[in-house]
Amino acid sequence: MSDRPAAAVAAALLLLAAACARMPRPRGEGIETGVASWYGPEFHGRATSSREVFDMNDMTAAHRSLPFGTYLMVTNLANERSAVVRVNDRGPFVRGRIIDLSYAAARILGVVGPGTARVRLEILKGFKAPGPSSRAAVWVQVGAFSVQENAYAIKRRLEKTFPGVVVSRFRTDKGTYFRVRVKSVEDEVKLLAQRLAAEGHPVIIIRE
Q1: Is residue 13 domain-resident?
Q2: Are residues 123 and 144 in the same domain?
Q3: How many domains does the chain divide into?
Q4: What are the pLDDT digits (tens) for 77-133?
Q5: Strands 71-76 and 82-89, bridge-based pairing
Q6: Closest CA to 100 of 168, 165, 30, 35
């Protein structure tokens, strides 16, 4: 029996394997990779596309198409730092970029100095902002810090298990403070406060 048919089959299999190796790998659902930039003082206090007032010290971001309120895990591929941001604006409008980070998010991810960085975006469906509700929003405050980085350190620790953690700036005659708060609703706030207190946080329930 001739070896030619077997050799032909082997050659065909090698060609098929090589072709498959060149095919792009399928991307995971909700994952996007590209270049991130950031924006800060020049837009601070202005209205965003979602009509929120932009606060460069909040963990937010601008994306061209994701719904407002979408939460993203952003990972800087150069240093493997990750942070969770909420989409509340549209952009970036520079070709080749996929997200504009707030100053606070860029600082945590190490993007402020270089200005841009290659990042991976992952949609966090469990952090999806709730739709409109007739129930009044209340907050559980777990601390007020004069040092901004201390507030964001607590925020990063809490947001692993508590969605809706925010840092807000509060000015007094004695100085500026950064308050760490967890959003809740009236019929759930006591349980949330108990959970936070059980973890050792001093809690204050605030209704605004």
Answers
A1: no
A2: no
A3: 2
A4: 998 888 888 999 999 999 999 999 999 899 889 999 999 999 999 998 755 444 444
A5: antiparallel
A6: 35
